[in-house]
Amino acid sequence: MKNPMLEVVSLLLEKVLLISNFTLFSSGAAGEDKGRNSFYETSSFHRGDVLEVPRTHLTHYGIYLGDNRVAHMMPDILLALTDDVGRTQKVVSNKRLILGVIVKVASIRVDTVEDFAYGANILVNHLDESLQKKALLNEEVARRAEKLLGFTPYSLLWNNCEHFVTYCRYGTPISPQSDKFCETVKIIIRDQRSVLASAVLGLASIVCTGLISYTTLPAIFIPFFLWMAG
């Protein structure tokens, strides 16, 4: 049986991560392609390579399939609204992506290198060095990616584009980006100043709204759980 408190914490972590990084993913809406690089030299790419596109705070990942095609996981709200492949296959706009993250729907799709990178510089197989893991054969990596094409549940913390490529490349789905974020949250939670801050905010909410259950209970339990977790 799932722990409801853990589910609530997980949901809050995902929303915080979403809010803090909602402008970091590639987008395809009109007017969003200013300064976009329209050409990439792909002759050095090999089928099965991991392509990385650095963002401000995050990195987007994909698997190169050859012939200027990249398989990557992209959240998209349209997947929950329509079965029209003609609409869902268009480059995912920023609004579609954000709403897709919120409702946790995504697909592992194939786009051109240009649409995948969306003007950013591309790193190739950088994860091999940073994770220091032995990669599978490139053809096996590409085949794994191709087998996973299609609809998939999405989670910023537990099932994102990095989980997809690390599973294909190394056989194990991991996400150092998510792990780093969770470690940061742990540090914040363990900081006793968080307990004091939550207690002050809780007291302020009680003063403003009175002794109402939906303000009083959080004002008591949130500082308590932070104290116990510290």
From TrEMBL:
EC number in record: 2.3.1.135
Active site: C161 (acyl-thioester intermediate)
Tagged with keyword Signal: yes
GO cellular component terms, A-Z: endoplasmic reticulum membrane; multivesicular body; perinuclear region of cytoplasm; rough endoplasmic reticulum
Keyword line: Acyltransferase, Cytoplasm, Endoplasmic reticulum, Endosome, Lipid metabolism, Membrane, Sensory transduction, Signal, Transferase, Transmembrane, Transmembrane helix, Vision
Top-level division of the source organism's lineage: Eukaryota
Pfam families the UniProt entry points to: LRAT
GO molecular function: O-palmitoyltransferase activity; phosphatidylcholine-retinol O-acyltransferase activity
PROSITE patterns: LRAT (PS51934)
Membrane topology term: Single-pass membrane protein
The UniProt record lists the keyword Protein transport: no
Domain LRAT: start-end pairs: 50-177
Stored Gene3D superfamilies: endopeptidase domain like (from Nostoc punctiforme) (3.90.1720.10)
Entry's family note: Belongs to the H-rev107 family.
UniProt-recorded name of the protein: Lecithin retinol acyltransferase
Organism annotation: Pongo abelii
